[in-house]
């Protein structure tokens, strides 16, 4: 099987050894493409550099970083540099043939720049602001990923995309993983994070059909809502199933493939 795994930045303060060893064992049977997040890491470094980060909320509950030019430089430094290479090193230590890439490399991820954002201000009113350097992936260079996969490499992608004007853009890592999974027609997309799965009233939802998602969106908070949208997009684009689960347990990926814990989202 071909599996796309997104490793949440929420669990990447130190690379969890359980993830590394499980990647190694999953690779004996399957092909893997990895994507990572790292929002908190970006915020931390930005703060050390004296660049406090601003976040905005969309009317549908999405939280996003307001990404001006300076923030985009820091975002690229941390995502494509610090975090990506920390993971590359951790995987290489276990002899995993990983290739760390940003979406800029080989035009891996092309995105449309968001010209404007509709945000909800502190008074609860809608407001239109400049989109900054944020974007939405609209094209994945699947043949570059296949070239690596066919030669036994494991691509590890950071969520920095290239715009129509060849500028780097901040793109959401969950949606990026979904785009990649869709473009590769992956069998499964696994989203590893710091909670057991999608929760309602403190309980994990073990299974969910994508058609039932819509009615529940209002009950889902920031962080998780992008995963649910990512799941919808991936399934629409032909991915077999999506699992949202904890990345800080033993064998997180193998367990997700066996439906041991987490939330399985499918088309039926
Ligand atoms: N209904 C919900 N069920 C589960 N988690 C929820 C829910 N609503 C909001 N969340 C939040 O979503 C968070 C996970 O998303 P978050 O973006 O923080 O992590 P991540 O995606 O793993 O990291 P990164 O964004 O850096 O890649 C959880 O820690 C939780 O607080
Ligand atoms: Mg997230």
Identify the notable features of this structure and list them briefly.
268 residues; alpha/beta; Carbamate kinase; eight-stranded mixed beta sheet; two-stranded antiparallel ribbon; 7 helices; 18 strands; 31% helix; globular
What does this protein look like?
- With 268 residues, this protein is an alpha/beta fold.
- It has one domain (2-266): Acetylglutamate kinase-like (Carbamate kinase, 3-Layer(aba) Sandwich), CATH 3.40.1160.10.
- Helices cover 31% and strands 29% of the residues.
- It contains 7 helices and 18 strands.
- The model has no long low-confidence stretch (mean pLDDT 96).
- Magnesium ion (MG) binds next to loops.
- Residues 8, 37, 174, 223, 226 line the site of magnesium ion.
Silhouette: globular
* Strand percentage: 25-35%
**The biggest beta sheet, please?**
8 strands, mixed
Q: What is the β-strand count?
A: 18
Taking all Cα atoms into account, the compactness measure Rg is: 17 Å
Please give the share of residues in helix.
Answer: 25-40%
The CATH superfamily turns out to be Acetylglutamate kinase-like
**How many distinct folded domains?**
1
CATH architecture: 3-Layer(aba) Sandwich
From the N-terminal CA to the C-terminal CA, the straight-line distance is 20 Å
On the 0-100 scale, what is the average pLDDT? Answer: 96
Q: Could you say which small molecules are bound to this protein? A: adenosine-5'-triphosphate, magnesium ion
| String of helices and strands | EHEHEEHEEEEEHEEEHEEEEHEHE
Query: What name does the CATH topology carry?
Result: Carbamate kinase
